[in-house]
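User: Here's a protein and a ligand (coenzyme A). What would the complex look like?
Assistant: Let me lay out the input and then the predicted complex.
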Amino acid sequence: MTYETLYRRSLEDPIAFWEEQARAIDWYSFPPEILTTDENGFYRWYKGGKMNTSYLALDYHVANGRADQIALIYDSPVTNTYQKYTYRELLDETARFAGVLADLGVTKGDGVIIYMPMIPQVVFAMLACARLGAVHSVVFGGFAAHELALRIDDAQPKVLLTASAGKEFDKVIPYQPIVNEALATANHKIDHVVLYQRSFGDCDLSLPGYHDWETLRSKAKAADCVPVDATDPLYILYTSGTTGKPKGIVRDNGGHAVAQRFSMRYVYGVEPGEVYWAASDIGWAVGHSYIVYAPLLTGCTTILYEGKPVRTPDAGAYWRVIEQYKVNVFFTAPTGFRAVKKEDPDGLLRQGYDLGSLRQQFLAGERCDAATLEWARELLKIPVIDHWWQTESGWPMLANMVGTGLFPIKPGSSTKPVPGFDIRILDADGAQAPPNHEGVVAIKLPLPPGCLPTLWNNPEQFRESYLNAYPGYYFTGDGGYFDDEGYFYITGRIDDVINVAGHRLSTADMEEIVASHPAVAECAVIGITDELKGQVPVGYVVLKSGANTDESQLEADLIKMVRDKLGAVACFRSARVVKRLPKTRSGKILRRTMRNIVDGKPFAAPSTIEDPTVLDEFNQLVHDAKSL
Ligand code: COA
Ligand code: AMP
């Protein structure tokens, strides 16, 4: 079917379209209703359908000829460990770990927080939760104790799963001190902590509530799949928003399974039995969808890579993995490619590897600059496809779809809307912008299956963050435009969210931390362009009158505070003192204008500016710093 036909059908009759797609998965009982609204008026897909995501990802394949196919490859250059699990072995491990959770009293609807490095146990744990109908919430290992505590308080889990340590390049990151601090500061009390002891990172398992993973596993019996409703939550994944508190994105079971299956076939063009590799972290949406769920729901082989694009051991790491496991489709963030390009600009390390298995390279997670895309295309000599999505959607919203035949690639564009996503560009009044006019990227409701139906325990915030700005539309938070040929270009966030090395972070979060320093009167943290990481945060602070602070000491203090409270992943490494911050007459800091100044882009003082001389002052300060 052509892209045009598929797309048109998905919008003309979404119910018939998604009913047909739902037939691709093996329901215990097919949903009696395809699209309904819930008590809050939010759209819900497949209500009343009975299924189990773990069954679809494992048991179904074991029963249908894939028992001995490799399901999961664990490749860890940082620990020199390489393991393969067939579908049968992955099912056994998962069912056994579901038994562990069941023995701890976890049942359908209970919360389980997973704070773990990139090891196979994290996959067993996620699928084990799905097996019991429990709701997992994976917290990225780069977040500090405070962020973990916020998530514990919001998700109210019964059990926390962790490991002794992670490894970043050659640096060991012990997890237990972070977990202990989070447990001590969270208001919600967790009954059980199950810790997987790796060969490094010594832990004290005699502390109250702690259990040794392997001891429990050795005693547990396999647990079977618990049927859940399609609309029951599979997981919560917290993401940065425009406030200091992360938003709990809810993913349901039924819509998710259908959407993931659809995306593998049509967006990525991947067939059951093929090898799919998403080089991301399990703590992000890409990791959830494209390391764990989509490839396994499809019957593919997936790769869990505990390494980096560079220095593990060199900038040929990607090519080594692709050759070794005959990867068919590879997905990573542009930052990964920029890191390789920086160390091996001529791609010399690629020459020694046979990449003949690789058909397409997908990039997402942040804006992909044309130079990086062209470099990758030249090096790999296959289509390099930039596609756009968010934690909220859980699967691509704009893409060049392999399954319907590729359109010519235009660097800088994520190509066209994926079926189910009625994407519009709106101006400030909510009217539709014509081609080549930048506006807000919004999606006409209903969103297709697989996207967030609501925020965890917070329907009001869901409405406020996503639905109220443009009634009848989902507000994405991104700006963009489309050209005369209907290709879409995402130009960047229009809120306080920034993307640092493909990691989504909130500058509002960082401002809250910086502002808590006793010498700081007010501050602005903005994301500025960075050649490697896409964006990095920089703080501009106004001191309290009379504060007698050494500037470099203050900067060091603020860096430490952000690192300790938010995490090293924030990459907050620069703070400067300014006399005043440019503001509008109503007191809103002109962050966008500041960002343009620091990035050396054209800027104009808005008509609402309080005092134009403040902007001149800021411009001069930035200019002076650059010419140093
Ligand atoms: N656990 C603990 N700490 C972590 C972490 C994790 N899972 N992930 C990152 N960090 C820490 C890093 O160790 C680093 O700490 P440091 O300041 O002590 O050095 C800090 O957070 C910043 O990390 P990062 O921005 O990743 O920088 P880096 O220099 O360590 O690595 C790249 C740079 C480009 C190699 C790395 O960002 C990368 O591989 N990017 C690929 C993009 C990607 O996969 N994105 C996922 C979303 S799709
Ligand atoms: P996350 O929720 O972490 O997946 O981050 C989502 C955000 O990343 C989006 O709202 C965009 O701002 C940005 N993003 C993701 N993919 C792309 C892309 N292909 N081009 C431009 N920005 C992107």
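Summary: Residues 141-142, 166, 168, 173, 279-281, 284, 286, 308-310, 332-333, 335-336, 339, 365, 501-502, 533, 568-569, 571 surround coenzyme A (ligand 1) (CB under 6 Å).
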